[in-house]
Amino acid sequence: MADPIHQFEIKKFATLGNIGGHEIAFTNSSLYMVIAVAVISLLMLGTTGRRALVPGRMQSIAELSYEFVADTLKSSAGSEGMKFFPLVFTLFMFILTVNMIGLIPGTFTVTSHIIVTAVLALLVFFTVIVYGVYKNGFKFLKLFVPSGIPFYILPLIVFIEVLSFLSRPISHSVRLFANMLAGHITLKVFAGFVTMLGGLGFFGWLGAILPLGLTVGLTALEFLVAFLQAYVFTILTCIYLNDAIHPGH
Amino acid sequence: MSDGKRDKGGFENRASDEASFSARLRSLGTRLGKTGKGKPVETSSGGPSGSDPSAIARGFRLSTELVAGVIVGALIGWLLDRWLGISPWGLIVFLLLGFAAGVLNVMRAAGVAPGSQLPGSDVDRK
Questions:
Q1: pTM over 0.90
Q2: Counting beta carbons within 10 angstroms of the beta carbon of residue B38, is it exposed (0 to 12), middle (13 to 18) or buried (19 or more)?
Q3: How many domains does chain A have?
Q4: Mutate which of B67, B72, B104 to disrupt the A interface (most A C-beta within 10 Å)?
Q5: What is the ipTM metric for this complex?
Q6: Domain that holds residue A197
Q7: Closest approach of B14 to chain A, Cα-based (Å)
Q8: CA–CA gap between residue A87 and residue A245 (Å, rounded)
Q9: Which of A166, A175, A243 sits opposite B117 (nearest CB)?
């Protein structure tokens, strides 16, 4: 039977060098990241290069994705949040494209590795901290002190608030990683059932119809999940950035 | 949009070119604008949002918030135990705190508890 974990294996293509005793290699993961960036760049540059007043199909995709992310950002972080639009839009397009490319059979899903999603989540986390402290100074710490709490319970609440803040990058990264990983494993297992039952002869062929139907259904579900996870990552980024822009006001 | 229609109706009595100009200006504004000035700022705990994807998104959020809080609490407790040599106590205390933080996360994600950045929590001051 096909090994459902095999698809997540990192294969090294070329070694680029060593930094601090660690090998920096160009892997299949890097390859698919480059492909994703190339696809996004082609979409964005190619469609906005010769833009028409009445947008064509591809130009509509580019414009719709801009509008979608801009609306999400404005509704969660206000118009001040628009200075983070490049970051948020890059994150959304990158995760969405990488998720979608990963659904093509035989390809590698970059976001199914927690190191990738953790780096993206930590990028957001540190952006929030650095910008929050830069913009608000010590008032940023008001984020951990909710108003209207009796003083004798305040130290406990502050502890819990700090822990809640620290848990953000974990839930942010684990959610995306776990959904992509679990989805791809499920797909592979059900697809594996089809070939296993198919090898059993005529009744096996009959029995294989059910997992085949499930695989088709799950693929559709995975497309929904691929989009929704990119959207959830984006909307949480916006919510966290909102904390940096207006903490405890 | 509704503003535009009302004002357009009010202008109908005046010169027609002025009315059509203001109507065009307004429709341009609604098409270009949406600058967020008129829109209320929706925060993490914002009320029920109408659109479907954000409702599903909120459902997906709930799945990991609790786990993340517990993991962070356990991790901090374990590290404190290792550094300070207070073997079970750091883990016990921070696991419980982490659980509380996880529950807080879930309540925030579900919109039950107000977000920490909201000013409206003055109401329950005792």
A1: no
A2: exposed
A3: 1
A4: B72
A5: 0.70
A6: 6-245
A7: 32
A8: 15
A9: A243
